[in-house]
Amino acid sequence: TGLVLAAVTSERRRAEQAEREIAETLQRSLLPDAAPSVAGWEIATLYRPAGTAEVEVGGDFYDFFATPDGWIVIIGDVAGKGVRAAAMAGLMRHGARFVSQAESGPAAILARLDEALRQQPAVSLCSALCMSVQSDHLLVSSAGHPGPIVVRRDGRIREVGGAGPLLGVASGGSWPERTVRVGPDETVLLYTDGVTDTRGTVDRFGEPRLTELLIEHADEAPDALLA
Fold first, then answer.
1. What is the dihedral sign for C-alpha 73, 79, 82, 84?
2. CA nearest 62: which of 73, 78, 71, 72?
3. What confidence tens digit (pLDDT) does each residue in 127-183 have?
4. b/e sequence 183-213, b meaning 16+ C-beta within 10 Å
5. DSSP, res 155
6. pLDDT tens digits along 209-222
7. Which helix (H) or strand (E) covers residue 196, if one does?
8. In whole angstroms, what is the distance from residue 136 CA to residue 41 CA?
């Protein structure tokens, strides 16, 4: 009996390790290898999967890519977990790159992604924020995604609201574009709700605590602020 149990346990561990490696590989495919060098901007990124020892691939993604009109940044979260959510996240990430070669502007990119999601055989919903990065401003469009937070070195905060509907909900949606001026003494934070929904020993991290942290560390460089 001891030998049989040892053999079964060993096989299970190997299977779990293989599953973790597949999940990690799939998750990495949803993210760029590194942040690009964009003139006039300092960029830092952080991705940390939720959970404990087990790895469950999710639907969070982000990307940067150059277009004829400048750099586009997209960040989003497909509803659900597992391989299907990851597959839809991959569709959103790579679809945005493809669409940006034909469409001009964040709202048009979101509209095409919405169309792609609604053509899927099963219902798929996604929050996403897409923005065009210029030298002194951002052109921002959001589909049910937390808006950017702009923080000055003196701790003053600006939140950019005005999101349109989630992608994949229904036809006829629209996603307004907003111009956000950014000065040389300001930092822009983009995030998914995985940050604010993270639970501690008492309750979730939440938006108020995120704002407090940004104010407290407003004068730090992007990589230090993320850390």
1. negative
2. 73
3. 999 999 998 899 999 999 999 999 999 999 999 988 899 999 988 889 999 999 999
4. eeebbbbbbbeebeeeeeeeeeeeeeebeee
5. S
6. 999 999 999 999 99
7. helix 193-196
8. 9
Count of beta carbons in the 10 Å neighbourhood of residue 17: 10
pLDDT of residue 53: 44
Q: Residue holding tokens 């000055």?
A: 152
**Burial class, 145, CB count within 10 angstroms (exposed 0-12 / middle 13-18 / buried 19+):** buried
Confidence of residue 52 (pLDDT cuts 50, 70, 90): very low
Q: What count of residues does the chain have?
A: 227
Tell me the pLDDT tens digit for each residue of 107-128.
999 999 999 999 988 888 999 9
Rg of the chain taking only CA atoms, in angstroms = 19
Q: CB burial class (10 A; 0-12, 13-18, 19+) of residue 61?
A: buried
DSSP letter string over 57-124? -EEEEEEEEEETTEEEEEEEEEEEESHHHHHHHHHHHHHHHHHTTT--SHHHHHHHHHHHHHTSSS--
CB-based contact 109:121 (threshold 8 Å): no
